[in-house]
Specification:
Helix content is 5%, strand content 39%. It is built from 1 helix and 20 strands. It is elongated and about 60 Å long.
Amino acid sequence: MKNNYFKNDTSHKKCNINDVTLFNSILRDISFELSSLINTNICKSRINNFTFINSKINKCNFSNTELEKCYFKNSLISNSKTTGISFAEGELKKTKFINSKINLSNFRFTGLKEVEFCKCDLSGADFQGAKLNKVSFIECDLKNVDFSRVDFTKVDLRSSNIDGIKIDINNLKELTIDSSQAVYIASLLGVNIK
């Protein structure tokens, strides 16, 4: 499909975008509302002020793409590969990620409110300085995720692999974990369990 959608200063409403490929591009001010991106590849690109509202991303590849100061609301990202994506300094609200590879991604200083990650690989992701409010990680791989200096409010990690996470012990009171994760959290506190 010819790329008529990913151009500077464009807004799109009620669009179904299939099979678009975009590599090594630098763009700004692109918004989608009530739209779908399917089987689309946007790799190694930078999009400043990317807005995605009431929309869906399915079977897409956003690997190593920077979505600087992005805004996602009421959206669904599923079955997608976003290894190394950067949402830095963005805002994600009421957005759901399902069965997606989001490893080695950058969520630094991003606001996440009412966001759900379900069956996602977030291993090695960096959330330093982010604000997580009512965020759930359901059956996710969170190995070696950096939650340093994160502002947590009602964050649920139950059923996820948290081996190797970095987290400030002052934030533990806002976490919900399951009994299998308690041993690892206790080790972060220096507690010896025998």
